[in-house]
Amino acid sequence: MGGRARAVKPPPAPPLLPADGEGSRLSQLLKTYLKPKDIAQVMAAYRFSDIAHTGQMRMSGDPYISHPVTVACILAELHLDALTIMAALLHDVMEDTEFGKQELTEKFGATVADLVDGVSKLDKIEFQTATHEQAENFRKMLLAMSQDVRVILVKLADRLHNMRTLDSMASEKRRRIARETMEIYAPIANRLGLNEIYQELEDLSFKHLYPLRFAVLTKSIKAVRGNRKEVVGKILEAIKQRLSDLRIEAEVTGREKHLFSIYRKMVEKTGTFSEIFDIYGFRIIVKDTATCYLTLGALHGLYKPIPGKFKDYIAIPKANGYQSLHTTLFGPFGTPIEVQIRSREMHNIAEAGVAAHWLYKNTDADLSALQKQTHQWLQRLLEIQSESTDSVEFLEHFKFDLFPDEVYVFTPKGQIMALPSGATAVDFAYAVHTDVGNCCVAVKINHELAPLSTELHNGDHVEIITATQAKPNPAWLNYVATGKARAHIRHFLKTMKSSESAMLGERMLNQALRVLQANPDDISEEQWKKLVRDYGVQDKQEILTDIGLGQRLNVMVARQLLTMAEPSGEKPVKQLGSITIRGSEGMAIQFAQCCRPIPGDPILGFINKGKGVVVHTRDCSAIRKFRKDPDKWLDVEWDPDPHRLFKANMRLAVANQPGVLAKIAAGIAGVGSNIDNVSMEEGDDSAYTHMNFTVQVKDREHLARLMRGLRKLPEVVRINRVKGAANS
Ligand code: MN
Predict the structure, then answer these.
(1) Which backbone phi and psi does 109 adopt, to 5 degrees?
(2) Is 698 a member of any domain?
(3) 119 Cα–ligand 1 center, Å
(4) Is the domain of 463 the same as that of 600?
């Protein structure tokens, strides 16, 4: 964080091992639990990092390497494995120096490189919004991106050291980092059961967010601590005496609440400082679970318990695996005494949380009770629904997808949205708003255009592009992952299908009526009622829909309607007038894939049972087979002002030169058209390439303008519109 300059060329000579300060503390710590060969590896990582960061300084003025060394120390105190310590030493190398993942993999293996890479990725996402729910999503996003729990452990240690040295930052930045720590990192540390890190992170955040309150509270605590010492000492003695009388071996300590938890209690319970601070806390650590209960009995014999305050977290552990007996007693001086009683193993978990696992890792091949317990709470904690029951493997690899069923992405405003994994841009659009879903036409993922079918990943920045005229595409149903999106698309298609078909059906019917020299407005309700009864359908709407869908012929319905009025008055059917096509009719009118008609093309419609009307160009070769079936023709013409873009195919022969596709794409975009699809044929003749484009244009004139523009490019040898089945 902050104050790094880019590395200058590293000097050739390796620096000496750090003999003082944090450096020597790290070697001391490592010696207590790592094997010499592991320590050698850690030292190699240290040397590499030191060289890589040469010339960089912390804001505090210290050489940069002091930061990763302290981070490594924090983790070594938790007795984390050599790979984690190495990753801690190297954690800023990828971000701040010229060395990349490749180099780290070669030198230190894939695991260390993955861990460093993971930490670097977390560094890149920034918490922007401040609502409670958003903070929870952000925490989940961080955990989900971590994959390996060690990544988040390194990140937490990194954050802890940065918080300890926050004073050298500018005040604006200090507040931002402190808030982020309070809302994101401290709760993660708490969730992972890293109690000490959690408390320190909270107190440091508190200090920088509310410097005044922090100062006042610190002063008050100092002031009363003197008086307390004596009282605490007396109670301590009494407890120790009672336990030793009963031959219970125990470690008894007075316990101070951390600063922020006092503050929080004052705010939440609206208590005064003395009400909250006047509670004395003690912790008793014994050898096993049975002794915990024995100790409890002994204490209740010493001081009267306050009813309703006893909690058995041994029988029912907290969600993060915490186990202890809690009880509150009436103390000798009228003040309440809070006591926690736990076994040594429980204590380790309470203090080191997820990291407690490593304390026992090397001692026994079998799973100790502690490991099983750790494993169990991790599973609960991470809500893993894995089929794998191999707990040994689980513990050894310690890799997991923390939230395998969800993916977290950013909206353009920096909000975080949780979606089921496998969700695509369309799911995202519907999650934002139904209207956004219904009108989405394109998506930018991390500021680059991508297909709507693109699957989203954790941390993606997603921006949906909408168009007012756009409509859901039935093809979306193939790749949406959320029920919400699916339901909305289905609903839209269904209602569109019937209402648009009914509208089209009405237009078709009216034309047929006019041809029969009847005025559509003259048709009475009575005539309709009769026809509805005759057909055995629900209502008029259903008949109109059927016409629009091509399931009834307009001319037949028109005739029958008229017959209902005057049974004798049948008139001969004449050529039907033409029907106007706007292009926005949806399912009722389809444009033939073979010829892809666009406004301006002479067209012909065919009534296709169940599909509605399919529009072809008049010169389309596919329509020849319909010629003998004139009943099914429908004269159609374009609406002079169509409301959408139409697809057209074109084929280009272009000189094989670099950048030619980009030039053509720019030419297409230059006249306001879009590329819907492009394919290339690699001919034997290497001088030319054939390219097939499907473009979106307003009409024939627009397409002509587009093609004229492309023809001017020197690389374009030939260009023509394709109306056969060549390209679809
Ligand atoms: Mn760092």
Answers:
(1) 90, 165
(2) yes
(3) 9
(4) no
